[in-house]
Design a protein that fits this description.
There is one protein chain. The protein is mostly helical. Helices cover 59% and strands 0% of the residues. It contains seven helices and no strands. The chain has helices spanning 3-8, 11-14, 29-49, 51-66, 76-94, 123-141, 144-149. Helix 3 (29-49) crosses helix 4 and helix 5 (76-94) runs antiparallel to helix 6.
């Protein structure tokens, strides 16, 4: 931004910008970062250069997934979604245990009450998860899918 805009910005915004790609542990992180980047590039290149092989891998993975009986349960997708939501929130709220979050925050402050949704205020995690699962269960019990979308195709 211009010097005028920068002069009127909050102190956190006037500070030099540090990229989120700068690792918290300089010795180990670049190797891990480069390894993950190489993995992504190689998978994308392999899919572009040999789509039949990539399609075979995808078909094998889908066949393995489809052969598991629990994946055919009507609540599987909702249970998986809730598990992923909760895991993401847990990872997000516990990142301060791995890196110093003050480096990456605009205000430079440490997180306030981290992990409270898993400790002292556990109901803030449990109630939404159970509400979502309950609503999907009611959706299936009342056959709302057929009411909304018609009978399943034969």
């Amino acid at each position: 931004p211009s010097p005028t805009v920068r002069a009127h910005a909050p102190a956190a915004l006037r500070a030099p910008v540090r990229s989120i790609l700068v690792p918290a542990t300089p010795a180990a992180a670049p190797l891990l970062t480069r390894g993950l980047q190489a993995m992504h590039v190689s998978v994308a290149a392999g899919a572009l250069l040999a789509p039949a092989v990539a399609d075979g891998f995808a078909a094998a993975a889908w066949g393995l997934f489809d052969s598991c009986a629990f994946t055919h349960d009507r609540m599987f997708e909702a249970s998986l979604a809730v598990s992923c939501f909760v895991a993401f929130i847990l990872f997000f709220e516990s990142i301060h245990l791995v890196v110093d979050p003050r480096v990456y925050r605009l205000d430079g402050a440490a997180p306030k009450r981290p992990l409270r949704g898993f400790t002292t205020q556990w109901w803030k995690t449990v109630v939404p998860a159970l509400t979502y699962l309950g609503s999907i269960y009611v959706y299936h019990e009342l056959s709302l899918g057929q009411l909304l979308y018609g009978p399943p195709p034969a």
